[in-house]
């Protein structure tokens, strides 16, 4: 069994957000999983692409390696929580100072596997990079089901903290038996010949 066949990401959902500057610092200082030499960051308008650079030099430059995709948004960040300040008792509201704030660009890794984690070559390794990003993010959740060397693994990281996760197997539409696989279009009284 080859290494690529024994590592898969089956399901993934992400709502991760972190300041773009923090993400760039994290990528610059990161240690990458085996198979990844580097991660290139490219920005196109409000889309950020983090692309795996393969250690294997025989990989064609035309072969797409796995990449993480994020949207870039601007959020106003306040020095002090504005709701907390507004709710505090004030004798004279006219004297209230303006709260210090700045616009900060955030990278938002939001969506399911096909949206956030693309291309199959080094996909599992880039999933591990995403898990490291999730551990550095103060906001958002990453949940996933992956397979490593024949074992299914559940991943759940919430607001930068790894949490317990389980995999639940439920009956799907294909598990009901051969006689109940769906609509029999050949013997359907609503369709005329």
Automatic annotation (TrEMBL):
Pfam families: DUF7110. InterPro entries: DUF7110. It comes from the Archaea. This is Uncharacterized protein. It comes from Natrialba taiwanensis DSM 12281.
């Amino acid at each position: 069994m080859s290494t690529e066949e024994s590592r898969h990401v089956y399901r993934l959902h992400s709502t991760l957000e972190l300041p773009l500057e923090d993400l760039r610092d994290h990528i610059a200082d990161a240690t990458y999983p085996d198979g990844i030499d580097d991660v290139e960051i490219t920005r196109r308008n409000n889309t950020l692409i983090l692309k795996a650079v393969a250690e294997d030099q025989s990989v064609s430059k035309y072969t797409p390696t796995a990449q993480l995709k994020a949207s870039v948004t601007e959020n106003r960040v306040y020095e002090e929580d504005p709701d907390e300040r507004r709710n505090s008792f004030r004798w004279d509201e006219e004297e209230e100072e303006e709260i210090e704030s700045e616009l900060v660009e955030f990278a938002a890794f939001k969506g399911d596997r096909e949206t956030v984690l693309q291309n199959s070559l080094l996909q599992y390794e880039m999933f591990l990079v995403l898990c490291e990003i999730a551990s550095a993010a103060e906001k958002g959740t990453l949940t996933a089901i992956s397979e490593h060397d024949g074992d299914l693994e559940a991943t759940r990281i919430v607001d930068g903290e790894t949490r317990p996760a389980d995999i639940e197997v439920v009956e799907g539409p294909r598990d009901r038996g051969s006689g109940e696989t769906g609509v029999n279009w050949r013997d359907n009284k609503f369709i005329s010949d």
